[in-house]
Amino acid sequence: MTDVTEYEYDLLVIGAGSGGVRAARMAAATGAKVAIAEDRYLGGTCVNVGCVPKKLYSYAAHFHDSFDDAAGFGWQLPGPASFDWATLRDNKISEIKRLNGIYQRLLEGAGVTLFNARARVVDAHTVMLKNDQGDTPVTAHKILLATGGWPWVPDFPGSEHALNSNQIFDLDNFPKRFLVLGGGYIAVEFSSIFNGLGSETHLIYRSELFLKGFDQQVREFTRAEMERKGVNLHFNTNIERIEATETAYNVYLTTGEMLEVDVVLAATGRHANVSDLGLEALGLTLDKQGKIPVNERFETALPSILALGDLTAGPELTPVALAEAMQLVDHHFRDTVPKPLDYSTIPTAVFCHPNIGTVGLSEEAARAKFSDIRVYSTDFRALKHTLSGSHERTLMKLIVDDATDVVVGAHMVGEEAGEVIQGIAIAVRAGLTKADFDRTVGIHPTGAEEFVTLRTLTRR
Ligand code: NDP
Q: Which one from 62, 125, 385, 444 is the annotated catalytic residue?
């Protein structure tokens, strides 16, 4: 048995992103002696180059539609609205700096020691911290790897001209012509953002339809809505090569077409950020997806070394990392044994325009899982757009297991879909039935009330 007191810390966390910071603070709150090492910004991807700045930019892009919508409600603007990229970018930079400060104060307030250093695990209880002052070994009873993910860009001629999602936020100049490669969350979100901000926007995706894994009807509906808003979608297409000219980038596509653009973003997925962590020397191997295998207690093959968040299997989402951090602390620093996390009904939103919100199973997954399902769906023009003149439509959809009447999936494409689905997610997580939805009185007039007034069966 090892004597815990021989170590400098009870927990040393590597990586001050969403999961790492939450675990550090919560562990410290139990009385544990905790340190966290970070060599970049506090708050990780979500705060600095992910969820938060992305949502701020998405708000900015929505104003485009709002200005167009306003006239039907009697508002007249003094002239055509114009957009200033530098104002948005610099306001965003100030806000993120403010959040970095909040994270620092949260950690300090919780009594967590913050090391501004690059960390490398050298043995089951020792981490080498490296910074300008040199290398310092620090020991801990438990070490938590929480270094998240890092954008990955495929190798093709000229791929060095493509930016990744870490580099897209602070562009010096606004791209009049923007191209994104990929068909996942980041590609659809950033094509909506730059399209809304006024760029000529192209999305290049290698297969038939973007957002693989989402409900097919949701994907098709989103395609139609994004096209209506002016995003140029190129499916069954990839980039062959990118050539830089004096003023732009010529992007040659596999279809033979060439697009001249100002910025190319590669949104082609993220890989676990394990470089230089020292895992190989410890004998810690990655799974087929390049993730660190852990058990229910978030222990790697070396039980004193823990891992969570984007480093491990499971959805790469901030709330998942936060939930895992709470579980991890319960397991290792409290006397509770929590129920294993249920990853099956994790709601998610894609902040494309209009937004997608989804929880539970897609129609296709439900069909594969249950012998009979009922699908209720509606597709309508929101009340607001009767006066705005916008042709934007909203899709709402419930999927029900026929045998039990339980709602196993809820999907929406439309304004504030994430906000709506967050509420619906409680019902789906609770295993409520379609009859429970039907018994719920609507809030009128809202779009969300459609979820409790869907009575007509669309298909089985
Ligand atoms: P995703 O994994 O969602 O999508 C990656 C896309 O790149 C896929 O469409 C994939 O195609 C395509 N791709 C992969 N390899 C290549 C290649 N060699 N050539 C061409 N295309 C390729 O990753 P993202 O980068 O969009 O986002 C990373 C993760 O971050 C997401 O999975 C999500 O978990 C998280 N995230 C969450 C957000 C949210 O909650 N709103 C917002 C942004 C990110 P294919 O589909 O064919 O595999």
A: 444
